[in-house]
Amino acid sequence: MFALRGDLDFHSAVQLYEAGDKELGPGGETGAVVIDCSHLTYCDSTGITALLKLYNQLSAQSRVLRLASVPAFLDRLFTLTGLNQIFSLYDDVDEALAAHEAERGTLVASTDDPAPHSGEHSG
User: Fold this and answer.
1) For a FRET experiment, which of 18, 58, 74, 120 has its CA 20 to 30 Å from that of 6?
2) 21 lies in some domain
């Protein structure tokens, strides 16, 4: 998990790329990446491109990008452009982390369950 603060634009997108590279590189976490956007004050097309790049890189690894506390200006932009259908948006960090834990719990539970239809059909 990491947080975005201030402006996400041409000058600061490199920091998002660096944080993403750290998450994606050897020794990085697995599963979802949660980004706290509560202190984000501005985001231009370069910032959106950086978020999309991170989303695509995570998706290629079967991982999820979760954006928490997205400011109203960015939420509106995501809605207008349809990006709200791509990004997983959450009201706050706790909700995003809870979704991650619920997903992990479901995955763990499903691997422990016996085969669901064994012996039910005898032909």
Assistant:
1) 58
2) yes
